[in-house]
Amino acid sequence: MTAQAILGSVAILGGVGLTFGTLIALANRKLRVWEDPRIESVTDILPGANCGACGFAGCRAFAEAAVEGTVAPAGCTVMGEGELEDVAALLGVDAGEAVKRVARLLCAGGSDVAPKKAIYDGLESCAAAVAVSGGGKACPWGCIGLADCAVSCDFDAIRMTASDLPEVDIDLCTACGDCVDACPLDLFVLMPLDHKLIVQCKNLLDGEAATDLCAVACNACGRCAADAPGVVEMMQGLAVVDYEAIDRAGPEAAARCPTGAIRWVEGAQDLRPELVLSGSVT
Amino acid sequence: MLSDLLRSDTFRHGVHPPERKSYTESVRIRRMPFPDEIVLPLRQHAGRPAIPLVRPGERVERADKVGEADGFISVPIHASAAGRVRDVTLWPHPDGSMAESVVIEVDRWSPQLPRPRIVAQWEGLEPEQVVREVQKAGVVGLGGAAFPTHVKLLPPKDTPVHTLIVNGAECEPYLTTDHRTMVEYPERVQFGIRIMMKALGVEKAIIGVEKNKPDAIETLRATLPSDLDVSVLPLTVKYPQGAEKMLIEVVTGREVPTGKLPMHVGVVVQNVGSIACIAEIFETGQPLIERVVTVTGPGVRRPSNLLVPVGTKLRDVLEFCEGLTDDASQIVFGGPMMGSATPDLDTPLIKGTTGVVVLTESEARPRQVHPCIHCGRCLESCPVFLNPSLLGSLAQAGRYGEMEESNLMDCMLCGSCSYVCPSHIPLSQMFALGKNMLRRQKAKENAA
């Protein structure tokens, strides 16, 4: 092999390399898309669960919005305190205040208070039970207790109690809404923690017809509506809380409830209520 | 003709469950006395529920309208007994939910006569007027699905119908409702066919009856009209022979395409009970306020075929049949293949209730479910050629969209696959689940 051939090939390869290198350099200058490096950094700090609880399509989308300033870092309810401060410091903004939202169960009728009227022996799934004639519980609005919600929860925040009700661990719950979608009876709602007045019942019957099905059912007596006018209203056999006016409500709204269907909830829901029949109420 | 030679007297696939019809097949229909209270759910048919027309305290006579049809795919509800409206409230419904119902306290001293009324003269009516009379009378398919009958009687102009198929197959085990109707009221069935043929403008009617009802075939043949082309076609005894699409396949040799209706292959199928009910409208003017129900099974002391006022509570019906045996354990609305168990004796019998089957512990025992062994028996049983095994595993994985792609919507929940599964996998429940979830998803998408 001659030296000429060697030099020739080196020159050709070198020339090709140089040409493409120049093209790439030019392309880099002309077609460059500048991205805020903070987006990457914020994404790294975020939990990365892509749970969607913030309302954005995943953590990256949230990071973009946070860097743009359209959402406060606290909009991500899944982050811990420390991470929240890191993000706020990185962006040089106030962490902001987002009231933590959690999933709340609108039924307190566990197997200890809500009798069954049939034995269900089909598929172990609430949705499957609903697709046939219900799960055997006397109350057709009540929690079936076959744990579709607990199965759907990615954060292990839902645990079934001994009375077959799903209990939400409010520290682990990120309000992602998976349980809301999983429940065939629509018993889960996402609520801010400061909405403390909760009607834990969806039974539409009145009086004894309701309490025959479940001891902690709303019997539509209307005491709560009388005690918290403008906040609680009776609709179709059920007390309904107007959360627009929740600031005006206090624990007294739930105090005279004869069944404990409406409750003032501080922190986690109490799904194993002692019957609160006080002497003054008959 | 060639098509006649090629025609088989049954469809492909299907199963042979024990018939168990001997309890009631030769028992005459008895009229059940009026109970003390009648419960009329406003939703007794496919389509939109009726709108209540009465208020608590009002007096109603027998056959008065208590609920008005809400739109075209809906029918009115009539009082099945005279009395006072006690309440319009939520009441246990045969489907397991609570549904808005009119509760009537029956007047025990009333002679239960209807108000004077004008009976429409069918010969002089236009087809549209006949259809209107049928809707006014609240007639629905009495074979179980309770689809409003008048909707089927108005095929669009561009889909001509040439044949009326009368469904007297009654392939569900235990049930003898249609059987007894054919044996005891053959003239009424023939008269109903005459009216329907005129309303539809068809030249030909075929009554399909399974061969296990020789007396029904004989009676119908003896009463066939001489001036119309009506014939009786004996069918092989196989489940689900009475399913609309299976029956069409046997009678016409044609398959109803996916997502299409019987009228797209030129036929309309009506249950014999519905036909007899239509005859009644033009004979006496009585709307659908009573129907034949088979109360049967090893758990009933006196299995019977009853003419029951619509809205009679299960409790009253069972008491009239002398109650339950000691080992009765499950009460099923409809037949054992497609029916659903009910836990509440206050549930009323509605227009679509074909029968009440009471099973005993030995028949209704829970079965241990085992994993699928891929034996393929479900595929061999499925009358619409689906793959139940695949659909089942998709349901378990929650992949409902893929179930739809695998033609879940062609499944009519006949239960043949569940019946043959050696692992006792509740396949048809999974399909009911899949259909339910898809419906929910669609509703959510529409709302969004």
Proportion of β residues of chain A?
Answer: 5-15%
Q: How are helices and strands ordered from N to C of chain A? A: HHHHEHHEEHEEHHEEHE
Rg for CA atoms of chain A: 28 Å
Q: Architecture of the largest domain in chain A, CATH level 2?
A: 2-Layer Sandwich
Q: What is the number of strand segments of chain B?
A: 17
Low-confidence stretches of chain A: 273-282
CATH fold category name of the largest domain in chain A:
Alpha-Beta Plaits
**Biggest sheet architecture of chain A:** 2 strands, antiparallel
State the fourth-level CATH superfamily of the domain at 2-25 and 124-284 in chain B: NADH-ubiquinone oxidoreductase 51kDa subunit
Q: What is the number of helices of chain A? A: 10
Report the principal-axis shape of chain A.
Answer: elongated
Q: Count the strands of chain A?
A: 8
Would you kindly provide a written description of the structure presented here, covering whatever features stand out?
- The complex is a heterodimer of chains A (282) and B (448).
- With 282 residues, chain A is α+β, with helices and mostly antiparallel strands.
- Chain A has helices spanning 3-30, 37-45, 59-68, 81-91, 126-131, 148-152, 178-182, 207-213, 223-227, 252-255; strands spanning 101-105, 158-160, 166-168, 188-192, 197-199, 232-235, 238-241, 262-264.
- In chain A, the strands form four sheets. Chain A has a two-stranded antiparallel ribbon with strand order 1-4. Chain A has a two-stranded antiparallel sheet with strand order 2-3. A two-stranded antiparallel sheet of chain A has the order 5-8.
- Chain A is elongated, with a radius of gyration of 28 Å.
- Chain B is of the alpha/beta class and 448 residues long.
- Among the domains of chain B are: 2-25 and 124-284, Rossmann fold (3-Layer(aba) Sandwich), CATH 3.40.50.11540; 377-447, no CATH class.
- In chain B, the strands form four sheets. Chain B has a six-stranded mixed β-sheet, with helices on both faces.
- The mean pLDDT of chain B is 92.
- Classes of the chains: A alpha+beta (282), B alpha/beta (448).
- At the A-B interface, helix 5 of A face strand 16 and helix 14 of B.
